[in-house]
Amino acid sequence: MDASYLVKMLGEISKTMDENRERLIELDSVAGDGDLGLTMTKGFRAAYDTAEASGEADAGRLLYNAGKAMSSAAPSTMGTLMALGLMQGGKVLKGKTDLADEDIAAFFAAYEESVMTRGKAKLGEKTFLDGFDPGVKAMKGALDAGDSLAEATKKAAEAAEEGFKAAKSMLAVHGKPAVKGEASREMDDPGACVAALIMQAVAAASV
């Protein structure tokens, strides 16, 4: 597996965000400003277009440059966090032209750590992390157990979807949803939905 897998992965994420743009707008409109669907569509499209056009063989450099492109195209809070995830994850794969399945898991672990650190959020606070973390852990666990990448990413997608559903009953701590107080426990979290969509796209790219 080489860097072309990452280009395919970014393409699937971009496609999935585009297909779910209105859904994300609707979720974000409940307590936010409703621009999440546009931000994710625009940002991941820029990341994919940059990666696809680069011909870059170095996996780390490809992801870092894709993240920079996303940061410029989608400079919102969520856009910046997703872009930094790509850039920090890229640092883990710096210099690699031949990728093992475990490298993909390492990339997503670094992605999560970056979002957690920069976003100053913890698990259980009703954010992107509550959808993403179950997927990251499921992927690594499945690969450690000997599953193929296709099997591991499918399990990651399923775990992320369950994480998104579980986040609904959590109390929002950050951003505009937090203003809703206890009422936020009745709301789906758009960030956790983005996490589930990313893992869904990664599974599709790994078939």
Structure description:
Helices cover 71% and strands 0% of the residues. It has 207 residues and is mainly alpha-helical. The protein has a single domain, classed as Alpha Horseshoe (Serine Threonine Protein Phosphatase 5, Tetratricopeptide repeat), CATH 1.25.40.340.
Q: Topology, pairings included?
A:
Layout lengths: L3 H16 L1 H9 L6 H19 L4 H15 L3 H16 L8 H19 L8 H17 L4 H19 L22 H16 L2
Q: Summary?
A:
This protein has 207 residues and is an all-alpha fold. Helix content is 71%, strand content 0%. It has one domain (4-205): Serine Threonine Protein Phosphatase 5, Tetratricopeptide repeat (Alpha Horseshoe), CATH 1.25.40.340.
